[in-house]
Amino acid sequence: MRKKIVAGNWKMNKNAEQTEDLLNELIEKMPTETDVQVIVAPTFVNLASAVDHLEFINIDVAAQNVHQAESGAYTGEISADMLKSVGVDIVILGHSERRAIFHETDALIASKVNTALEHDMTVIFCFGEELKDRQSKNHFNVVENQLRDGLFQIEAKDWDNIVLAYEPVWAIGTGETASPEQVQEMHEFIRETVRKAFGSDIAEDVSILYGGSVKPDNAKEIFSNPDVDGGLIGGAALKSDDFIAIVNAI
Length: 250
Ligand code: PGA
What we know:
Pathway: Carbohydrate degradation; glycolysis; D-glyceraldehyde 3-phosphate from glycerone phosphate: step 1/1; Carbohydrate biosynthesis; gluconeogenesis. The active site is at residues 95, 167. The chain has helices at residues 16-29, 47-53, 80-85, 96-101, 106-118, 131-135, 139-150, 180-198, 200-205, 216-223, 240-248; strands at residues 4-9, 36-41, 59-61, 90-93, 122-127, 162-166, 208-211, 230-233. It has an 8-stranded parallel β-sheet. The protein is built from 11 helices and 8 strands. It has a single domain (4-248), classed as TIM Barrel (Alpha-Beta Barrel), CATH 3.20.20.70. It is of the alpha/beta class. The structure holds 2-phosphoglycolic acid.
């Protein structure tokens, strides 16, 4: 069943106290009756406290990354088992900042996806073209390759634990949003690409989120597209009023 999802990627923002404050505000303002799955992704050091804090609330907690190995000499890294042990079973992978700043390749992302799935985690798989790709009209190719090289090694049964997040790099943190037509056109293409590789049932069931400068004033228009099932929110997820307004816009 395709789900409606709004996920907040907090990136490297909010210390322990600020995390608690923002969570308290979200708890207070969250609509009680909603069929939207709401997810927040604080930094690693605040995941355990976020899980505790949200124990009785309908908000799930995600990590922003995971290492592909089980354990070992990987200074500074965090394993899937560690995330699961503090109650986190969702992870964002392939974010454009991980790809660009930390040089994560499709092959590395694919191995992280495999590890996360082996641990029964849900993966929010991010991908999207850069401005130069769109200007050279190569954006469909880029997106298709990212899906094939980073994700399509999985098996049909794994799709229950996959959420797709299309995030055109030129729209992330820039205030520049893809137009609703551009978003729908790409989401339709993504669903078709999944359909060709894995069949109609999986393509119809997978949730495809849009990310890139989603704000309260543009969320409704973006979410009203038939192939858009929610959003991955950066900047606007750091303000409770904005984030809740986006949740309510679905
Ligand atoms: P933004 O970030 O909403 O600030 O553009 C989105 C993201 O990076 O997931």
